[in-house]
Amino acid sequence: MEKLDIEMNRENSTLLNTLLKKLKTKQITLSEYFTECAYWFMTDIFDTIKWKPRPTKPSDVISFERLNYNQKERLSDDYFYDNWRIVEYYESVYKILHINIGNLQNMIKVYQNIPEGDVLNRDKLKKKIDFFSNKIEWRRDKEWFKLRLEKEG
C-alpha cells in the first residue's frame, strides 16, 4: 500500500512494527499482512478520509477563463505575476485533485484486501469509493493532467 497521510502515533507504530515482525518471521503471509493493514485502515483511518472540494474561483480566474484560446496564448508572464490569484487557484485545484485521487486509490487498494466474506466493511468502503469516483470530474481532470504534463515535460 502507498503511504497514507496519517499521523503515526505510538499505537499505530507498535501495530505496524508487530505486523512487520510477523511478516518477517513468516508467522503471517503477505496476503494476511495486507488484510491486517486493510482492517487497520477501516478502524483507524476510514472516518478521517473526507472529500476535499475545489476552492471557490476568484474573479481573476473567472475573467481569465472567459478569454478565448488566442487571447490566452498572447498573455505574458507579467499578466500572471500581476494576477497571482490565477496561479494560486490552479495550484490549489491541482493539489486537492491529487489528494482526492490519492485517497480514492488507497481506498481501492484497501477494498481489494478485505476478504469477500466481510460484507459490512466492503459495503461501507464501496460506498465511499463510489462517492469519490462520482465526485471526481474525470474528463475535466484528465484534461488538466494532460495540460500540466505537457507544460512540465
Number of helices: 8
Structural class: mainly alpha
Q: Estimate percent helicity.
A: over 70%
Poorly predicted residue ranges: 1-7, 146-153
| Residues in β-strands, percent | under 5%
What form results from the Cα inertia axes?
Answer: elongated
What does this protein look like?
The structure is a single chain. The chain has helices at 10-24, 30-45, 59-66, 69-73, 77-82, 84-112, 119-135, 138-152. The protein has 153 residues and is an all-alpha fold. The protein has a domain at 51-152. 8% of the residues are buried.
Task: Chart the SSEs and their pairings.
Layout: H1 10-24, H2 30-45, H3 59-66, H4 69-73, H5 77-82, H6 84-112, H7 119-135, H8 138-152
Helix pairs in contact: 1-2, 6-7
Keywords:
153 residues; 8 helices; disordered N terminus; disordered C terminus
Brief overview:
The chain is mainly α and 153 residues long.
